[in-house]
Design goal:
It holds the Pfam family Transket_pyr. This protein is α/β, with parallel strands linked by helices. About 35% of the residues lie in helices and about 20% in strands. The strands form 3 sheets. The protein has a 7-stranded mixed beta sheet with strand order 3-2-4-5-7-6-12, sandwiched between helices. α1 packs parallel to α7, α8 packs across α12 and α9 crosses α10. It is globular, with a radius of gyration of 19 Å. The N and C termini lie far apart (about 50 Å).
């Protein structure tokens, strides 16, 4: 099939459909994923085509969804569990971090749990708290979990295929405000490795690192900076655990400056780990401190204040200016 332009949401749907077609052991489960097709219509049409035994509407019980997925994986299935919104994952947090993440080590490698947990995350859609969180750092901190987030339709398609094929549990964060963003998807391509970062825009003066919903903001910032004669390299991290520090290091050794951008609060966020590691690795190459741009250390605000809370173009460019001023 030739490459075609599709939205990020349609790419996820196509990826799930492909996985269901390829392997009868793949199951999809979650609240309203069947007849409704999910609140974001990501699983639209899948239950109709594959049946209620493979696309399963579950009770409103996140702990039960993940616990059942673990049991199914123990029996040889490859369940893909959807958590309807980011803030709803916490009733299942115990199952994820004490059971799902630890079973492989607990069994000395004898037991594998190929479970994917899809979580729409982040703000930008005017939703209330518990519908707009960015909890990726909580899961990236847990040994035994892989944590990834696509920023475009092509990555959404391929990274989900790779997550489902993985014998390790993967938390797959979907940037919900990018669901309708379109890009080319070549379903016959050879994809990048699941945890490899990618240079989304080359540059020479400063590295902007981002993932998920903030990659577009970083690219917009690089475009705006270019109008002022500044050359910014944008690195799409794609994976928060593990992080591809080698690609990031090569970029920073070239540019001498790094700004990390994510929606989650800056305090103890993914950017903190990146800043520390890059400072250790690139100390003699850095021309300025590694700067971080993110949300505030406060509960998610009402929709009228969302634009003030989330890092946008101005806050990113301000950090770029501060880094370049050194």
């Amino acid at each position: 099939m030739a490459a075609q332009k599709m939205s990020l949401s349609k790419a996820i749907n196509a990826s799930l459909r492909k996985a269901l077609e390829n392997d009868p052991k793949v199951l999809i489960m979650g609240e309203d994923v069947g007849k409704l097709g999910g609140v974001f219509r990501i699983t639209d049409g899948l239950q109709k085509d594959f049946g209620e035994e493979r696309v399963i509407d579950t009770p409103l019980a996140e702990s039960g969804i993940v616990g059942t997925a673990i049991g199914l994986a123990l029996r040889g299935y490859r369940p893909v569990a959807e958590i309807q919104f980011d803030g709803f994952v916490f009733p299942a947090y115990d199952q994820i971090v004490t059971q799902l993440a630890k079973m492989h080590a607990r069994s000395l490698g004898k037991v594998k749990l190929p479970v994917v947990i899809r979580i729409p995350y982040g703000g930008g859609i005017g939703a209330v708290e518990h519908h707009s969180e960015s909890p990726e750092a909580l899961f990236a901190h847990v040994a035994g979990l892989k944590v990834v987030s696509p920023s475009n339709a092509s990555d959404a398609y391929w990274m989900l295929q790779q997550a489902i094929d993985s014998d390790d549990p993967v938390i797959y964060f979907e940037p919900k405000r990018r669901y309708h963003d379109k890009s080319e998807v070549d379903t016959a391509a050879i994809p990048d490795p699941l945890h490899a970062a990618r240079v989304a825009r080359p540059g020479t003066d400063l590295t902007l690192a981002a993932y998920g919903p903030m990659v577009k903001v970083a690219l917009d910032a690089a475009g705006a900076a270019a109008e002022e004669g500044k050359s910014l390299e944008v690195v799409d991290l794609r994976s928060m655990s593990p992080i591809d520090f080698d690609t990031l290091q090569r970029s920073v050794e070239k540019t001498g400056r790094l700004v990390v951008v994510h929606e989650a609060p800056v305090f103890l966020g993914t950017g903190a780990e990146i800043a520390a590691r890059i400072t250790e690795r690139c100390f003699y190459h850095l021309e300025a401190p590694v700067l971080r741009v993110g949300g505030f250390h406060a509960p998610y605000p009402p929709s009228r204040l969302e634009d003030e809370y989330l890092p946008g173009l101005d806050r990113v460019l301000d950090a770029v200016d501060r880094a370049l001023a050194y």
